[in-house]
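Progress narrative, Year 2. Work on L-iditol 2-dehydrogenase from Candidatus Chryseopegocella kryptomonas advanced from sequence curation to structure prediction during this period.
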Amino acid sequence: MKVAKLYDFGDIRIEEVEIPSISDDEILVKVKASGICSSDTMKWYIRKKAPLVIGHELSGIVVDIGKNVKEFKIGDRVFIHHHAPCMSCRYCQRGNFVMCETWRKSKIIPGGVAEYVKVPEVNLKNDTLKLPDNISFEDGALIEPVACSVKAFKKALIRPGDYVVALGLGFMGQVNVKLAKFYGAEIVIGIDKVKFRLDRAIENGADYVLNFETENVKEKIAQITNQYMADIVIVGPGTIEAINFGLELVAKGGKLLLFTPTPEDAKLEIKPFDIYFNEISIIPSYSAGPDDTREALRLISEGVIKAENFITHRFRIENTLDAFMMTANAGDSLKCMIIFD
Ligand SMILES: [Zn+2]
Ligand SMILES: [Zn+2]
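Result:
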């Protein structure tokens, strides 16, 4: 079978490997759709993890099952989360699934952009979902990233009437705009510099969009919110610059949501005086757990999130590098997806 293996930024090779063999407690899935995530294109992240088979946002169809597997059958259409928690450790019991050691260690074999994947027992039991008939494979491949947005808003305790700013309007920023409105935000403001992305944010429900290269964003947000600023600022880019910019836009009593990691050695300088007296909460949200994927599946099956609004480019596995470069360039595209026969 073919896999797309990432060796370095811009170095993806299509390689031929054996189809993984499964044990009695595992299943084999023929991948149908696999999204490219912008986190897969972050240079420092790649250098920590490469070489690896790229991709962790996928859906497919069950083609083989181990003899102990009862909950799934051949022909089932499924979403598979690449990490799954043990459900029994203290982190899991308290709902902090991504802190679970099993979650961190678990993975699908060999990775998302592959013609077939093996789903290990823990992933199968604790975060594999059957797709209802009204959900396409492309919709199914959006469950993982949409779950990240679901979790982030849950952590930020979004409330009806909130003013929300989305910094960065790539695919995730667009989903955050859409869900912020869905959760009842009164004003949603999207910020980017790419016209295509600003326009798409309006289509996805943003009340205002601002171009940070040509507009004074802070002043504009003050005007729009009658000097209040934003209850929640979602920082898309994983940079100190973006975090600092976000901090300038948070209202008193508001929240700064860190949606993307920064490099390991990055340091943030903050004034605790301001954080304290303005009661600013800084809330990180990393990935998503099984409760979030179920909620994402529900939102997608109810049509709140539709693949057609977010997938802008489709590629065959042979052209994974093109999908990667398009995602990395962050221009006139949102989600790039690898589609399989
Ligand atoms: Zn992702
Ligand atoms: Zn656990």
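DSSP finds 13 helices and 16 strands in the chain. The chain has two domains: 2-147+288-339, 157-284.
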